[in-house]
Specification:
Blueprint: H1 2-22, H2 27-67, H3 69-76, H4 78-84, H5 93-106, H6 110-125, H7 136-147, H8 154-162, H9 172-194, H10 201-222, H11 226-254, H12 259-267, H13 269-293, H14 296-310, H15 321-326, H16 331-345, H17 350-361, H18 365-376, H19 384-407
Helix pairs in contact: 1-2, 1-13, 2-6, 2-11, 2-12, 2-13, 3-5, 5-6, 6-7, 6-18, 7-9, 7-18, 7-19, 9-17, 9-19, 13-18, 16-17, 17-19
Protein name: Spore maturation protein SpmA
Keywords: Membrane, Transmembrane, Transmembrane helix
GO cellular component, one term: plasma membrane
Length: about 400
């Protein structure tokens, strides 16, 4: 799947380039070649940024592992994962790491979620009988990770505040609703393909309280003022991040773990992980860069606008689609598109609100695929791409619908 997808990016870019060349734009080839080198450089820059983060969190995770925290989380969720991931043994370290990853994503702690997720994927790879083919457990984990249920989208608030929004948290509830739809569709799509029994009483015993807790949290936050909500979001995000680090260190100390030596030992893995990630990042980002510089993305956007106008629908949301269209491929490109939309149309314009909601509702699917599968050498993704894109599409459609509900 990834082989065909990667080749398809270059083929589509070539077709778009030929079309522009025939139309009198010979500079398109220079732009496409330049994008190859620019994306290769960006891949290295991304790795440099991730290098320190990976080293930090892999060191802290080694402390958590030796302190027994990961095993404890795995045992607590063993009944649920026994139904969702039957090939993973009860109490396996991967289960605790998956739980930590989901918690970090939910709190908007992207810097913490990525290294934890990579550690979880490597633990699942140890159980994979076909090292180059994604297992069912790895696919479910990746799709739920890509759908990225986010309870506190602090980064989106920051982007809006930087652009001068009067109420940076205005999109909080729309993002929460859209990301919930994305996660639900991701879970259902994988359950359908893998024939998981979500109606199992044990599964429902975990999912129903979670849904009620989420609903209660939404109701509580909906009653807060914009100022209080912004303060709470920032406080919870930073407090949770530091509290997690402190928990690892104190628990390790109580368990007589030599925390400094253990941290250094775990941090060494950051070098190996970074080295393994770079080729996959170069491959995916270069393909995306060529696709963008060829003009294929702009042609697609014009076609969507023409179709929407033909149906007689409101076309305001089309101006936000660049963020949605590049989000599956590149988080940095999506952020650039979001900021560009805010600057062009106004930070509180309808397109900017839709773009912000889209940005917070889903993850960068192909980036996650490249990073998570690349870290363990997975080459055959099976149904991971289709299910992840279904979740992403659900998040985008929900973001558009919710924004018309809230702001239309």
């Amino acid at each position: 799947m990834l082989n065909g997808l990667w080749l398809g990016f270059f083929v589509v870019a070539a077709i778009a380039g030929v079309t522009r060349w025939i139309g009198g734009d010979p500079g398109v080839w220079a732009a496409m070649v330049e994008s190859l080198f620019a994306m290769a450089k960006l891949s290295v820059e991304v790795m440099i940024l991730l290098f320190g983060t990976l080293t930090l969190w892999l060191g802290l995770l080694r402390i958590a592992e030796r302190a027994g925290l990961v095993d404890a989380l795995g045992r607590a969720l063993a009944p649920l994962f026994a139904r969702l991931m039957p090939e993973v043994p009860r109490g396996h370290p991967a289960l605790g790491l998956i739980t930590l990853n989901f918690a970090a994503n939910g709190l908007g702690l992207d810097n913490a979620a990525t290294p934890i997720g990579l550690k979880a994927m490597k633990a699942l790879q140890e159980l994979n009988p076909l090292p180059h083919t994604a297992s069912n457990a790895q696919i479910l984990f990746l799709v739920l990770n890509a759908s990225s249920l986010t309870l506190l989208p602090v980064s989106i608030f920051m982007y809006r505040a930087q652009q001068g929004a009067a109420d940076p948290t205005l999109v909080f509830l729309p993002i929460l609703l859209a990301t919930s739809a994305s996660t639900l569709v991701g879970l259902l799509s994988v359950a359908l393909v893998q024939r998981l029994k979500l109606w199992d009483p044990v599964v429902l015993a975990y999912l129903i309280p979670g849904a009620l807790l989420l609903g209660g949290f939404m109701a509580l936050l909906a009653g807060l003022s914009a100022t209080a909500l912004a303060s709470l979001s920032s406080l919870l995000g930073n407090l949770t991040l530091f509290s997690l680090i402190l928990l690892f260190l104190l628990l390790g100390s109580l368990k007589k773990v030599p925390v400094y030596e253990t941290f250094v030992d775990g941090a060494r893995e950051g070098f190996e992980v970074a080295k393994n990630l770079l080729p996959y990042l170069v491959a995916m980002l270069c393909a995306v860069g060529v696709l963008r510089s060829s003009g294929a993305l702009e042609v697609l956007l014009d076609g969507i606008r023409w179709c929407v106008e033909g149906l007689g629908w409101d076309t305001r949301f089309v101006e936000a689609l660049p963020t949605a269209l590049v989000k599956p491929f590149s988080g940095s490109a999506a952020r650039a598109m979001l900021i560009e939309t805010m600057q062009t149309h106004g930070v509180d314009s309808f397109p900017a609100l839709v773009a912000a909601t889209v940005q917070g509702s889903t993850e960068t699917t192909f980036y996650v695929l490249a990073v998570y599968f690349g870290a363990v050498g997975i080459q055959r993704a099976r149904h991971a791409v289709g299910c992840a894109l279904a979740a992403e599409l659900a998040g985008v459609l929900a973001a558009i619908g919710v924004c018309y509900w809230f702001f239309g």
